[in-house]
């Protein structure tokens, strides 16, 4: 696995890349991509960082695992490539945006447009074996993404963290809530959303209101 990552992010995270766990992780991922079909494509593993410049960072959304179906994952949590049907969680995200902001449901499930506005779409685990959810968990990715969140929390201020579901909320332990704006709700998956834990959270309005108060450019969701 080659770490193809934006220079500013690379500087921030360099000490992680030099730790023994990351070397072990690199060896594991390299072997997995050599012998199995894995997602996202190897050159897009760090795409979340390459599309969201560190200096532009305003919002962090934490996902769990990349999608494990063919052609879906491209390195951004919850996002799919152009022309790919929207997975259930993404549909519910768009439905909430529709009612929260009164804008129409989008055709494309590709969230690069968010990333380029300063939204880091970070999965806790950055790779997965095809058709095998969670297959690359507990190999070192969680330690790496914990470090990412900690370093963002320490280095930046007034970042909005959107923590959706129990898994993301656990990652929130790394965030200094005195410096940042943290919003929590249920996961947008149908299981959670249909029980009333997702719809009506208004996270998108709340995010933009916070950015506006702090004289930052609002996100066009």
Provide the CATH superfamily: Uracil-DNA glycosylase-like domain
Determine the CATH topology: Uracil-DNA Glycosylase, subunit E
Q: If strands are numbered along the chain, what order do they take across the biggest sheet?
A: 3-2-5-6
Beta content:
5-15%
Structural class computed from helices and strand pairing: alpha/beta
Q: What is the number of E strands?
A: 6
- The residue-averaged pLDDT reads 97
SSE string, helix = H, strand = E? HHEHEHHEEHEHEHH
Q: Whole-number radius of gyration? A: 17 Å
Question: How many separate domains make up the residues?
Answer: 1
Low-confidence segments, given as residue ranges, are none
Q: In the CATH hierarchy, what is the class?
A: Alpha Beta
**Apparent shape:** globular
Helix content, binned percent: 25-40%
Termini separation? 32 Å
User: What kind of sheet is the major sheet?
Assistant: 4 strands, parallel
Tell me what the CATH architecture is.
Answer: 3-Layer(aba) Sandwich
Structure described in brief:
It is built from 9 helices and 6 strands. By secondary structure, the protein is of the alpha/beta class.
Textual characterization of the structure:
The protein is of the alpha/beta class and 221 residues long. It has a single domain (7-214), classed as Uracil-DNA Glycosylase, subunit E (3-Layer(aba) Sandwich), CATH 3.40.470.10. The chain is 39% helix and 11% strand. Strand 5, helix 7 and strand 6 form a beta-alpha-beta unit. The model has no long low-confidence stretch (mean pLDDT 97). It is found in: Cytoplasm. GO terms for molecular function: uracil DNA N-glycosylase activity. It catalyses: Hydrolyzes single-stranded DNA or mismatched double-stranded DNA and polynucleotides, releasing free uracil.
């Amino acid at each position: 696995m080659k770490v193809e990552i934006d220079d500013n992010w690379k500087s921030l995270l360099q000490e992680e890349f030099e730790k023994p766990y990351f070397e072990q992780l690199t060896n594991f991922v390299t072997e997995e991509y050599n012998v199995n079909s894995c997602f996202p494509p190897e050159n897009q593993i760090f795409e979340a960082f390459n599309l969201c410049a560190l200096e532009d960072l305003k919002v962090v959304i934490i996902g769990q695992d990349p999608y494990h179906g063919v052609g879906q994952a491209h390195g951004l949590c919850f996002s799919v490539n152009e022309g790919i049907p929207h997975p259930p969680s993404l549909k519910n995200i768009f439905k909430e945006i529709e009612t929260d902001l009164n804008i129409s449901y989008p055709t494309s499930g590709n969230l690069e447009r968010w990333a380029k506005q300063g939204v880091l779409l970070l999965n806790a685990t950055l790779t997965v074996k095809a058709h095998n959810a969670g297959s690359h968990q507990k190999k070192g990715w969680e330690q790496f993404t914990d470090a990412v969140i900690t370093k963002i929390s320490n280095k930046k201020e007034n970042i909005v963290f959107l923590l959706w579901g129990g898994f993301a909320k656990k990652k929130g332990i790394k965030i200094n809530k005195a410096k940042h704006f943290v919003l929590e709700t249920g996961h947008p998956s149908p299981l959670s959303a249909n029980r009333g834990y997702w719809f009506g959270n208004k996270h998108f309005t709340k995010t933009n209101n916070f950015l506006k108060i702090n004289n930052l450019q609002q996100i066009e969701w």
